[in-house]
Structure prediction request, 233 residues.
Amino acid sequence: MWNRVNIEEKLKKFRDKSHDSNTLLKEVYDILNKKSDIQNELDSPTQGYNEFRFDLLDCDKIYHIDDIKEVCIQYRLRFLSTKYFKGKYPSKALKSIKELEKTHQLKLQGFKIVAPSKLFKLENADDPLLFAPMGNDYFYLIHKWGKDLHPLRKYLVLPFRSFLNLGITVLALSWIVANLIPLELFTPMHGSVHFWILFLFVFKIIGSVTIFYGVALGKNFNPAIWNSKYYNK
Prediction:
């Protein structure tokens, strides 16, 4: 009934909406033909770019940082350097890197990966995407592995996209809980005033628990963590 979410397909949809394929190729072509010695000196080993051969690139695997950011925010994922990744790399991913290096006659560097936060702390198998930087906020998808995301993940993490979303979620949950609690437990009266008093009481409890949970565990909203290397965000 519910198909799992292929995060690579979602990323392609965001890319196709915001970038025309011809424009994308032209921008990448300009990037690969305008690298300078100054740029080489400015880039650190973890932030370097890769000088791919333009005529050998697969346009379908080129993504802009804005597209990656959007899908990370929607599905509460992180986009970080592979040095923070604690999962295991499948042999196919390593093979893809070697084949890409052989094809483009270069040594790839600056790898980054899209994955759930927990994959940067412990091993799991949820849909990582391995990228290599191309410069000017463009990234080349090298390999995807693991199983697809749960189809409901987008909606389960929706409250964490912003403070407004979280507030609406707490209000809605409080209203549902208040309707499930019989008023007879507190008063023989059944007026609307009594219901709203109960609603405010429930809202206060759920709101307090939510704030305590967020502060105690150092949680933050999706736009603040998608590229953060810190655990308590």
